[in-house]
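G.,

No rush on this.
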Amino acid sequence: MEYHNPVLLMQSVQGLNIKPDGIYVDVTFGGGGHSREILKKLGPNGKLFAFDQDEDALENVIEDDRFTLINENFRFIKRFLRFFNVRNVDGILADLGVSSHQFDVAERGFSTRFDAELDMRMSQRNDLNAFRVVNEYDEANLKRVFLDYGELKNAPAIARVILEARAITPIKNTEQLKIVLSRFLPAHKSHKILAQMYQAIRIEVNQEMDVLKEFLEQSLDILNANGRLSVISYHSLEDRLVKRYIKNGLFEGEPERDFYGNFSVPFKTIGKLIVPDNNEIKINNRARSAKLRIAEKV
């Protein structure tokens, strides 16, 4: 199955500071690009576990005795690693967001380029899909979705228009949704705003913010001392959570200080924020918004 180039491949894998006999986890397997690069750096006794909730990713499984692919959401990383008798690991890599493959398969409903049924599920086993969000959520919840996850200031008006439209007939596909929302899509920036609307619905369908928080908290538990966390994010909501957790071990507020005014943090930041160079963006347009942060457990 065709998957596109992995983003920030060398930088994200090098950031793990791989030990040949270590245990590593790629929580967003996709086409397997990052996993294959990790395996190149592992010796015969090293181990790599990968997660991907999308059944399509199973077609890319790597035939290697050191490799195990787990067809589950990485919010369950601790539970499934324990199933394989693994309690601690030396490094974790996460390439967040939607894979190029998911965007390119029209019927998945992720892309603004195609007309498709409202779906947007990263795993087809999930009950919640985009149709249910658009057609069943009440006005307050629709407003929350577009405001919190799309950062759209006119979220209240968007919610009202959806309610008015679906009262006449259900909104079943992406083309209908575009028509319903057309008044909010001025020609000069219609693509950008539509992408924000799709992003908001997709994040809600897949509970992406909750999943990311659960994953980051568990990563702290399962990383060995001096273990590395390498995370690629694609929008400000994700990057904000990753940055705060690496800095403070919290998603909001500041850590408690001791009597002397010092506070302990669970990670130390490795290097500066890494973004793709112009050459990578030219080859792989998906990379344009990527941000890589690397941290080491103290």
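When you get to it, here's the other one too:
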Amino acid sequence: MSNKKQDRMKILVCISHVPDTTSKINFTNGDTEFDTAGVQFVINPNDEYALTRAIWFKEKQGATVTVVNVGGADTEPTLRKALAIGADEAIRVNANPTDGMFVAKQLAEVVKNGGFDIVLAGKESLDYNGGMVPGMLAAILGYNFINSCEGLEIEGTAVTAIRQIDGGKETVVGQLPIVVGGQKGIVEEKDLRIPNMRGIMSARTKALAIVEPTGDAAATKSVKFEKPAAKTACKMISPDNVAELVELLHNEAKVI
């Protein structure tokens, strides 16, 4: 990839297609598959923060913004929403996103073929919370990498970012090419874009390319899913009845 200053910044934003947090989660086929029946899917929130920052670069610095997703045809409405928000074009890698390394390899091929020096993604997806793909992608490409990013400025090939660390924040500087794992703070919730009618109509005519995956095989597979144990009933004890509390902690909870 070229490291020289470009006339027009080309940004690739990685989009995950995830269940809305209000969805009821169930499994099927002997708890080996996620049941999508009746589930509403949305743009992964961390990815939406990254996308909104990319749109800011488009409006302020003339960048072009492409969104990419690894998934089946059912993910295209999510990509169309990203186009309605303001992305210029979309790419769908026609493959089941089985694990982080497989997804990172597919995305790396898109980056190489598209000549992108800036890749924005959420630091993790809302469904599996693996947090693996941005770092793996940077390693495969040999790009610089910033994770947990809460602030991002790019001027030419110079990058200034603010990232979250234990107990505070850190400002770092670097150079393109770069992969950024973003989160809330890279933009705020109030900055998120709601597609308007013009955006929705224009999204219908914007390019959505479908590309076939590389020959890489998935390294892992899901064997079984299970839900957390249901919460037990809460027993209320009067603050004046310390003896009962001690007795229950000793005989029922068995923690003392």
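The first strand starts at residue 10 and ends at 14. Residues 45-61 form the longest helix (17 residues).

Enjoy the weekend,
O.
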